[in-house]
Amino acid sequence: MSKLKVPYKTYLSEDEIPKSWYNVRGDMKTKPAPFLNPGTHQPMSADELRPVFCDELIKQELDNDTRFIEIPDEIYEFYKMYRPSPLVHAEFLEKALDTPAHIFYKFEGNNTSGSHKLNSAIAQAYYAKKQGLKGVTTETGAGQWGTALSMACAFFNLDLKVFMVKVSYEQKPFRREVMRTYGASVTPSPSDTTEVGRKILAEFPGTNGSLGCAISEAVETAVKTEGYRYVLGSVLNQVLLHQSIIGLETKAALDKCGIKPDIIIGCAGGGSNLGGLISPFMGEKLRGEADYRIIAVEPASCPSFTRGRYAYDFADTGMVCPLAKMYTLGHDFMPSPNHAGGLRYHGMSPILSELYDEGLMEAVAVEQTKVFEAAEQFARTEGILPAPESSHAIRVAIDEALKCKETGEEKTIVFGLTGTGYFDMVAYQSFNDKTMSDYIPTDEDLEKGFAGLPKI
Ligand SMILES: *Cc1c(COP(=O)(O)O)cnc(C)c1O
């Protein structure tokens, strides 16, 4: 098969799990723009963030300079339950594609939550516990974040209240039950348990809910409940920091194999797995030590990078969160209901937004039927049933490998396989039944979202 003399799977040893996270902001010349207070439009201070977020996490959120932040022992011990994750040389996929390219993927689906989100969930739960909090609140869309956080909260004996986007709550009862099994309470959003939820329900009675709306409800509940704070599974700088474990392990495993990648690919919803995967590589790029092509892959139905605006916007529909400068479709944007494949958030990580704006990475948007074709091919060759989100990255990895077939170039492609798709079988079913359709918003649709951007 492949001419590369590397094992199918490269595992680091347990002792080689990185001891520190890497904060790519430390190497960025232009730092991501600060959060603004939605009332005063001034940068949010740590004190202003304190009612919402845990103290230590605020420190990490605002730290634009410290390059390495030590992973506390308690988190490291938990990481050992499911890390290091394997770097897999996709020989079977390469063979099926008949490509000279070398394809590797970092597989983050080897834990019960089935995705990379546990990497940050355990860190956030740890800092909440350390602060002596009773519990945390959060939102979840497809349910991976809520699942990961419920596992993390169970480990540290923290209470967890999850607001789950209504359509997922109804369509994904199994995710919901996993969360409840780990002890979380799960409320469909919008709900009548919060002011903002009641307001949204009154305005849009039949709404399916959205991530932005569930965030508003979770934040409101945290602020109004004694001993609670709000935690978020993507977008934030702190989450990219925790997810850097993916990239650090990937780099260590590639170094072990003596391989330098040419192209690094990841799917982008809020940007946390991609940000984590690319961090150490981007660091080298920023320091002028190496060059890589870095590609973010997003759904054509929710194209924050490729068709969004780089502007200050609310992180949530209810406009209770601070303003973040990011590539955004506007906080009112709701992807069309036929969008099955995850990655439906209107905004994007401020760190990645800045890097993209500086031209240090690229982005492509792909249609969901093409994504599921890639998922099917991947499942049939490499054996793993991929999450729809991850399959966006698979799509572009395959496309790049096929380009190599035409040019005869022997490029090395690394992509993030963020998780498994066992809870996404309704989406697979519509693909298998050929009832899945693609929806690309018109410029007019997008203008409606942009019209809601705050004037800063
Ligand atoms: C949440 C999720 C994503 C997207 O989130 P990012 O913050 O963009 O990484 C991708 N893949 C899986 C499996 C997920 O659960």
Annotation keywords:
16% strand; binds pyridoxal-5'-phosphate; Rossmann fold; 456 residues; alpha/beta; 18 helices; four-stranded parallel β-sheet
Give an overview in words.
The chain is 42% helix and 16% strand. It is α/β, with parallel strands linked by helices and 456 residues long. The strands form 4 sheets. The chain has a 7-stranded mixed beta sheet with strand order 1-4-5-15-10-11-14, with helices on both faces. Strands 8-7-6-9 form a 4-stranded parallel beta sheet, with helices on both faces. Helix 6 links the parallel strand 6 (135-140) and strand 7. The mean pLDDT is 95. The chain binds pyridoxal-5'-phosphate.
Structural topology:
Elements lengths: L8 E2 L9 E3 L23 H4 L5 H8 L5 E3 L2 H10 L4 E3 L1 H7 L4 E6 L10 H13 L4 E6 L3 H12 L3 E7 H6 L1 H9 L3 E5 L5 H9 L7 H14 L3 E3 L6 H21 L5 E5 L4 H15 L6 E7 L4 H4 L1 E6 L8 E6 L21 H8 L4 E5 L1 H15 L5 H20 L4 E6 L7 H8 L10 H9 L5
Parallel strand pairs: 5-15, 6-7, 6-9, 7-8, 10-11, 10-15, 11-14
Antiparallel strand pairs: 1-4, 2-3, 4-5, 12-13
Helix pairs in contact: 2-11, 3-5, 4-15, 5-6, 6-8, 9-10, 11-12, 15-16
The structure holds pyridoxal-5'-phosphate.
The site of pyridoxal-5'-phosphate has 18 residues, from helix 12 and helix 16.
CATH architecture label of the largest domain: 3-Layer(aba) Sandwich
Helix segment count? Answer: 18
Task: Kindly report the spatial arrangement of strands forming the biggest sheet.
Answer: 1-4-5-15-10-11-14
**What general form does the structure show?**
globular
Distance from first to last alpha carbon: 57 Å
Q: How many separate structural domains?
A: 2
The helix fraction, in percent, is 40-55%
Write down the CATH class of the largest domain.
Answer: Alpha Beta
